[in-house]
Design a protein that fits this description.
This protein is mainly alpha-helical. It is 55% helix and 5% strand.
């Protein structure tokens, strides 16, 4: 018998895989911020509107489903530009006063030249408060024509009076803050140890005359701007 040589089985190379290290908290925050977005995220809302509007424009006779989907996406996207259109602000009052609130907010923005989001939000707050003043005043006037008296009616009077007072205070405070934000700042440079500064006030600042042999004080008048 011939001897058969025993061959060793070929050893397969062992594949090594790199073990991924867990991300740090800061890395996870960055990854979630970039990768995960909610349905209410403006980017997602606008992406859906772009897709539905493209489908609507590509069809000469779009179906009712396509039109309804686009209108729904437009409704979802309207709050994104609410600071420009003032539509969300108008929803805080009843249907009759909504056109007035939108127009009044536009007038406030134009009057005070509101540019930043905070300024436009204050303009909307002023318009909302005044719209509520008109609405509550009408409700209070209508309730006075009720001929009978009762504890429920007195409670209703008290509720309207409180809400009307609250709307007046909101209107006045929002308008005051907006005026303060848009008013020019007072800039005065004074070389003195003690000074009392107020807007539209004349300031007399004193400084010594450093000329030789002269110890008198020289008075400098700073006129108000």
């Amino acid at each position: 018998m011939s001897e058969q040589k025993k061959t060793k089985p070929e050893e397969k190379p062992v594949e090594t895989k790199a073990v991924a290290k867990p991300l740090t908290h800061e890395q996870l925050r960055g990854w979630i911020t970039k990768a995960a977005m909610a349905d209410c995220d403006p980017k997602n809302v606008l992406d859906r509107l772009a897709k539905s509007s493209q489908e609507w424009r590509e069809n000469d006779k779009p179906s009712k489903e396509v039109v309804a989907k686009m209108h729904s996406d437009i409704g979802d996207a309207l709050p994104i530009v609410a600071l420009e259109t003032h539509y969300l602000a108008a929803e805080s009052v009843s249907q009759r006063y909504r056109p007035f609130v939108v127009q009044f907010a536009q007038d406030i923005v134009a009057e005070y030249q509101c540019k930043t989001p905070s300024e436009k939000a204050l303009a909307q707050s002023v318009a909302i408060a005044y719209g509520r003043i008109l609405e509550l005043s009408k409700s209070f006037n209508s309730s006075q024509h009720i001929e009978f008296l009762s504890s429920e009616k007195n409670g209703y009077y008290g509720m309207i009076a409180k809400e009307l007072d609250r709307a007046h205070r909101q209107f006045a405070s929002s308008l005051l803050v907006l005026k303060q934000m848009k008013s020019p700042t007072l800039e005065v440079n004074i070389r003195a140890k003690t000074a009392f500064i107020a807007q539209n006030q004349q300031v007399n600042a004193t400084s010594p005359d450093l000329s030789a042999g002269n110890e008198k004080k020289v008075y400098e008048t700073v006129d108000p701007k």
